[in-house]
Design goal:
Length: about 400
């Protein structure tokens, strides 16, 4: 499986070939390399500007391709903003070299605009980054009607017919993490007894998550993970991966992670065994987590961004999850004025506790018998989050992380 880092290195090789062939001038080549190296956490020779952190390798990839494409046509160190804007227009119209005849859609042009802005933010070549217009992101890609109901979540739970697949489903549902983050968790990254986990910071492709990698709550995934570990092929080595291939008659190597496609296939098989018609791929489960956390538990935006691994300055709540600002707020207002009966059922609360099998009330935030927390707004969850925040505050690498954990503490 090709990693984001390997893709990036291959793209750098292509870039170098263009330079050697004379398609990209030396001044542009040097400037692009300086930018990429400064924001690459694998490069120890150059640091990002003061007050800024490094970027994930996937982000560097989205910068490199546009700069490489435009650098083949003009010297980016001596050009003007007007010429660059004309180039972008020609791309959109299909009149630019290296693009298809019917042009590039605005969502792709936006990647070029963002790359140029970062390039001229880092370098002083006489171009104000703000002179490069950036198309707004399209409206929220998340349809609120695609979110799973409490009954559908329970149906999916029952359709997961083995402990490994059930653990994968619950991790996606209760953490909101990307499949790359889930598949690369190691045993030592998870503390089942305390109900917390950290992401594997050695992995590329986690976007902003690595920069805000404090403790996070497992919530209702705790019980299914406990059950899965009884079947795990080898829990003696903390460096082994949490999720492995399913134990069978053939040997399973717990030191190798499963692929992202395995996680996708697990979710497809679960869906096939249900009557659910809504999207259930891994990223759809991420959308479910965020929507439920905001709509049903009213978590602060920065708290949600921390939980799912977005930087504090991310606009994900205003773009991807813009659907949360409409009917949901109308419903809350009607409930507040007594015009509608409040919905007390918690979408994340199962029928029985996953740890001790105690029956749970539909609106229960935690198990009354063993204390397992199921909702992110439960009092015990908030206390846990506050404790995490204090630990994170002491270990914060920069002001960004400190601000994030302070938000937790204040929540």
């Amino acid at each position: 499986m090709t990693t984001p880092r390997q893709k990036y290195e291959r793209r750098r090789e292509t870039f170098n070939e263009y330079v050697e062939n004379g398609e990209i001038d030396q001044q542009t080549a040097s400037a692009v390399r300086d930018l990429l190296d400064a924001y690459d956490d694998h490069n120890m020779m150059v640091s990002p500007p003061e007050g800024e952190g490094t970027r994930e390798v996937g982000t560097l990839l989205t910068w490199l391709w546009p700069l490489m494409t435009m650098g083949r046509e003009r010297n980016l160190t001596t050009t003007t903003a007007h010429k660059l804007k004309k180039d972008l227009q020609r791309m959109h119209d299909g009149e630019y070299p290296h693009v298809k005849d019917d042009g590039i859609k605005k969502s792709t042009i936006r990647n070029y605009q963002v790359a140029l802005r970062n390039f001229y933010h880092y370098h002083n070549f006489g171009i104000d980054p703000n002179d490069i217009p950036v198309f707004k992101k399209s409206a929220s890609p998340v349809d609120p009607n695609d979110m799973l109901t409490k009954e559908e979540i329970q149906e999916a739970r029952e359709a997961a017919d083995n402990p490994r697949d059930r653990a994968i489903f619950e991790l996606l549902l209760y953490t909101g993490q990307r499949r790359e983050a889930i598949r690369t968790l190691r045993l030592k990254d998870v503390n089942i007894q305390e109900g917390i986990y950290r992401l594997n910071s050695n992995v590329d492709g986690l976007k902003g998550a690595a920069e805000r990698n404090g403790k996070r709550p497992l919530l209702g995934a705790k019980g299914p993970l406990q059950n899965w570990l009884d079947y795990h092929p080898d829990t003696s080595d903390p460096d082994n991966y949490l999720i492995t291939a399913r134990p069978s008659y053939s040997a399973v190597d717990p030191s190798s992670p499963i692929s992202g496609e395995t996680i996708r296939n697990v979710m497809e098989k679960i869906k096939e065994k249900t009557s659910i018609k809504k999207p259930m791929h891994p990223h759809a489960m991420r959308h479910n987590f965020v929507t439920i956390a905001k709509r049903d538990y009213d978590l602060a935006d920065d708290t949600i961004k921390y939980l799912i691994g977005h930087r504090s300055g991310s606009d994900v709540m205003e773009t991807t999850y813009a659907h949360l600002s409409g009917d949901d707020h109308v419903q809350r207002a009607e409930e507040a004025w007594g015009l509608r009966e409040p919905e007390n059922e918690s979408p994340l609360t199962p029928e029985v506790c996953e740890v001790c099998s105690n029956p749970l009330d539909p609106g229960a935030k935690a198990c009354s018998r063993c204390g397992t927390v199921y909702t992110p707004d439960a009092k015990s969850a908030q206390e846990l989050v506050e404790e995490m925040a204090l630990d994170g505050m002491r270990a914060a690498d920069d002001n960004l992380e400190a601000d994030a954990v302070k938000t937790f503490r204040d929540f």
